[in-house]
Amino acid sequence: MFKVLDSAVPIACWSCSIGHNDSTLFCPHCSKIQPPPGGDYFSVFSMEPRLNLDLTALEAEFHRLSRKLHPDRFARSEENEKQWSLADTALLNDAYRTLKDPIRRTEYLLKLLGAKIGTGKEEKSPRTPADLLEEVFELNLQIEEMRAARDSGESDAALEAGLTVARKNLSGLLGAVDDDLRKEWSAWEAGDAAARQASQARMVALLDRRRYLSNLIRDVSEVLVAA
Amino acid sequence: MAEGRVVGIDLGTTNSLVAFMEGDKPVVIPGVDGSNLVPSVVALDPIPVPITAAGGARPTVTVGNSARKALIQTPERVIYSVKRLMGRSMEEIQDELKLFPFHLAKDIEAGEVPRIQLGELRFTPPEISAYILRQLKRNAERFFGSPVTQAVITVPAYFNDAQRQATKDAGRMAGLDVLRLVNEPTAAALAYGLDRAKTGTIAVYDLGGGTFDISILKLRDGIFEVQSTNGDTHLGGDDIDNLLLAIALNEIHAEHGVDLRLHPGAVQAVRKAAIEAKILLSTEPAAHFDIELPNGDRYQREIPRAVFEMLIEPVLKRTAGPCKQALADAGITPEQIDEVVLVGGSTRIPAVRRLVDQLFHLSVRAKKPHTELNPDEVVALGAAVQAAILAGESKSTEEMLLLDVTPLSLGIEALGGTVARIIQRNSTIPASATEHFTTGVDGQTNVAIHVVQGERELAADCRSLARFDLKNIPPMSAGLPRIEVKFLIDADGILRVSAREQRSGQAAQIEVKPTYGLTDEQVESMILDSFDNAEADFAKRLLIEARSEAETILAAVERAPLNSAWKLLRAEEQAAINEAHDRLTVIRHGDNPAAIREATLALDQATRRFAELMMDAAISGALTGKTMNTAGEELSEAVTAPHAMAAAEFK
Questions:
Q1: B302 annotated active-site
Q2: Deepest of A155, B168, B579, B636, by most Cβ within 10 A of its Cβ?
Q3: May I ask the CATH architecture of the domain A11-100?
Q4: pLDDT tens across B633-649, in order?
Q5: Chain B residues touching chain A at CB-CB below 8 Å
Q6: CB–CB of A63 and B221 under 8 A?
Q7: Could you read off the pLDDT of B372-403 as tens digits, one per residue?
Q8: What is the pTM of this model?
Q9: Domains of chain B (ranges plus CATH)?
């Protein structure tokens, strides 16, 4: 099943001239490779946008399509087919890379639905979640102290132990966010339009929180590794 | 098929090889001297070429073993390890110059491709590599008796865009259509994967002459999916040789008051002794230096293996970091690696094997690394497998497909000099990213984009790939144009860029200025033999080449009795040489290239011991200064680095 985006007009196959749907990698009639279709990453794998994915099936489909599309299969083909194989395979790889990762997949789907997610380079880091304000304040002080100690070549075992515990707690919080996200996947897929809207908003918030926690864990790890 | 065979080429730092798929088995094609390995050494003919007008006759060069011999007698006309210079700028190669006797042309400006001075001529690194590739191409043509025009060439997995492009340029100059660049560790995995278990996770540890790579792959039903790769493009056996060489030269200077660094030929002779010692130490508990010096002294030294291992530990340790990073990037622990494959001559060193064992917890899991295939040949064999996959003509490779990754992240320079990553390292290639750009000033018609490769946060710390100029943007208010730029890394790991102005619907014009590298026109002008591929001339060329090879060896053999080494041969050895000589003298006038080659090869075999004796004489000659009649100022630069920037100021 294909998602027709902006064209209901069939496109003629370059090889057999029979019209076909825009969103296909191969001509349904003559099986020849087609220029990159205009659909989203889900349509590359012939599916509707969704969040719960069978990763084994996804991988199997990725391998099946790779065998047919990869430039290695077109090394001695005409120039146009070579170019399409390259562009199609890049699309397939980009799609697989995005969909196989749960976070990237969620972000991608939310963006498709028009959500603004702060992964852009210009956007500043997400705001500190209210429930973490106090803890983060304390943690940032410890990180600074650790950096100062490192720069002067000292080591502070108590500080290091404290940060290690903090990192463990943060990882726990991150795990909780991931669990919540998974619950939202099912809620979104099962819900009606209104329920989906609400779920989307919650997922955007969860992703913000998640990014915040990841950055924090990265900062703590940095000073711990250096020490 | 009309295209003919596709060969697989391992263009190595130390040695190069060409292989092809014979039925369902990859085999290496030997050179005219019967050896599988062609040393990656290029020598200019000892007789200077008169410099004619531009585009004049090509110089005569020799490649491989014969070029290596010239290294001791005419070091200023010989180059080796040129792979270290491929795709690198003048600034980047300053460190190499301290360790390698590369003579760089002095009037090259920053940003230009370095030129190597060989005798009276100068060459870019891709041109030197092209000579090596042409030799391999000819070896294959000789073997098949038909032209070879398509090839797969291997590159270190950690090679960046410029280094890959330089390798492709070299192929084009050698008259080869490079169907694919394949990463060396992945090629090795292909060679092993042909008849191996169908599922599992393998790590390929590849420590060659000049480069180190680690790749982690997942195998499933013939699909070789690279999970992660890491490495160091300037780490290898060369570094170990240089350590031993430096110790010997320092000790000779300190103990005997002789500075061999002033004598490039003598340095090469010591280097040869250092390499032999290194090789011996893989199997023996100790090796010896015993070198006669120009003043009649002898430099004698024992190197116990324990000392050697202590010495090289810092070099080997540099491979540990990339291995750990590759595991982390693949998201696995050492225990999840089912098999480890060792590639590259340096993995014969026992200390390297112990390190690999520790890194991947092998012996504790009752596992051993794979070394069944010759580590010097496995990459070329894998290249032949990939060649068969591309040609689509072999049953055994029908189900095989290689999915490789880009080793370095691709980014664009953002405000404040930071890097915005658009394609992450270890992304399966081909991979693409689309970015949108706009203008900052009303009526602006150009937008400049700076693309970099690397993992650092600041663009200045990454490798600059290219600057793109988006031109002819329709004049609009600031921020209104919307230019869509598509970045695509192709299956060779090389970046391609296209752009479109979305509001006007115009395809924006892009001017790509690679930060380093040759232009298309420059590559075109460096193509070695424009007639090399003409089918009609092929048979003729084969005959001319066979005759010229025959004449070269005949001339050498006729001069042989004048050489002092001749007297060291037994009478029956001399008789065998004379007989082979007489046979070739008759056959070379015929028009059967195969017969001429066979007789040439027979004569070459007959003179092998003689050649060895001559070689020994040449080495001691170089060390005692007898043949060193040219140790002038020019040569003294061989080991101490000529600084390109300083030289440019002099001009």
A1: no
A2: B168
A3: Orthogonal Bundle (1.10)
A4: 322 333 332 222 222 22
A5: 1, 3, 179-180, 220-221, 223, 386, 389-392, 401-403, 414, 418, 420, 427-433, 488-491
A6: yes
A7: 899 999 999 999 999 999 998 888 888 899 99
A8: 0.81
A9: 6-189 (3.30.420.40), 410-514 (2.60.34.10), 543-619 (1.20.1270.10)
